[in-house]
Amino acid sequence: MALNYNYTPFFKFKGNEVAGLSMLNSRLKEELTPFFDFARKDGMSRLDFEKSVAVCAKKAKKYLKEFSYIFIDSFDIPDSIAYATTPNCRVIIEEFFDFEYVPVIGLDRAANHNKAIFDAKAKGEIISDKVAIRFQPEEFSSFNLIESELLDLIRKGTIFFSDWIFIFDCRVCLQSNRLKLASEIANFTLSADKAFEVGKYIVVGSSIPASITDIAKPSDESLVPRAELEIFHTAQSMAEGIVLSLGDYTIVSPLYSDLTIAPELLLSVTAPKVFYTYEHQHYIARGGRIKTGGYGQYDSICVEISQKSFYRKSHYSWGDNFIQERADGKGSNNVTPSTILKPTICAHIEYMSRDYPK
Predict the structure, then answer these.
(1) Residue 153 and which of 161, 181, 197, 262 are 20 to 30 A apart at CA?
(2) 133 with 105: CB under 8 angstroms?
(3) Phi–psi pair at 268, nearest 5 degrees
(4) Contacts by 146-155 with C-beta closer than 8 Å and gap 24+?
């Protein structure tokens, strides 16, 4: 099965995201190469991060072996928690030494981040011959401005890695100048392609901000146009024969961070939200506060989705079947803000990988 647009889903490295991937059909697992970021948390310490990475390493070895490789990055983890001589990426290197993953470097990283990855590859602590460079909009705005620094980074890394992947990370781009971003990505790839050999260019972004209320109100339905898709398609049309790959942050904001709110207050401030992706937009249905409306609101939302013309029916994916079963009153346990992610992420990935329209 050919992967649609050579699609790459980006995730926070958390249990329900991994669980959603584990429910994909085997053919997709053979072709997808998911990208994982570790989620930040207010007040996170180095010990907290080490514990998180250790848990995720166990999950990866249990659930992600069918994928040919994955990407792993510590981009969102503050450099301030790192020990003086040991960057955050060393934690990943040590826990994943026997698992094939693509490490990620960049021009904006801590001074010893890139060196630590190169040194680890030289010592045989990293299996992959692939390495990714992740660019932020201010970096890919002009190839000429960063050419010297970029060439120097690649010159140092080519000794260790043979396959280079460029990632243009537009982050939350719903309010961005989409034509400008697309033009800059296209121009950057055209210049980069002449300067050195790049194995893959991935364009990724999201239309989901940190606060869901910015795009979807409680007790309402919303349709959100996906700006990241417009950027990708426009950039592809300008790239003059260079094939770009599509990435997205699925249905979780790239600005997500773990909640620090007291558990007893959580139900007072949380309202159900369920995403369903189709064509070039997200459908988002929200309920009222869980404390007053209860968890059954998730089942009511599943009923609403199952009756929509864009619903792809239960046979389409494990996630779609979950929605139908909840709509039909099946399932004894409550759906929660956490557990709804597994089926809806699964449904999103199946759609984007297989049938998102050309």
Answers:
(1) 181
(2) yes
(3) -80, -20
(4) 146/107, 147/191, 147/195, 149/107, 150/107, 151/195, 151/196, 153/105, 153/107, 153/114, 154/196
Distance from CA of residue 54 to its chain's centroid? 20
**H or E stretch covering 134:** strand 130-135
Q: What single letter denotes the amino acid at residue 292?
A: T
**pTM metric for this prediction:** 0.95
Q: In whole angstroms, what is the distance from residue 324 CA to residue 303 CA?
A: 7
Q: Is residue 358 very low, low, confident or very high in pLDDT (cuts 50, 70, 90)?
A: confident
281 alpha carbon, distance to own chain's centre = 17
pLDDT at 259: 62
- Closest by Cα among 126, 42, 37 to 76: 37
Q: Distance (Å, rounded) from C-alpha 69 to C-alpha 47?
A: 27
Q: Given its phi and psi angles, is residue 219 left (phi above 0), alpha (psi -120 to 50 degrees) or beta?
A: left
Q: Can you tell me the distance from the alpha carbon of 251 to that of 345, in angstroms, rounded to the nearest whole number? A: 7
Phi, psi of 51, rounded to the nearest 5 degrees: -65, -40
For 213, which DSSP code? G
Q: How confident is the model at residue 269 (pLDDT cuts 50, 70, 90)?
A: confident
Range 184-195 average pLDDT: 97
Exposure class string for 305-339: b at 16+ Cβ within 10 A, else e: bbeeeebbebebbbbbbbbbbbbeeeeeeebebeb
Residues 6+ apart with CB under 8 A from 89: 74, 103, 113, 116, 117
CA angle 28, 231, 174 (to 5 degrees): 100
Q: What is the mean pLDDT of the chain?
A: 94
How far apart are the C-alpha atoms of 185 and 268, rounded to whole Å? Answer: 43
Task: Please answer whether residues 35 and 11 qualify as being in contact, where contact means their C-beta atoms are separated by less than 8 angstroms.
Answer: yes
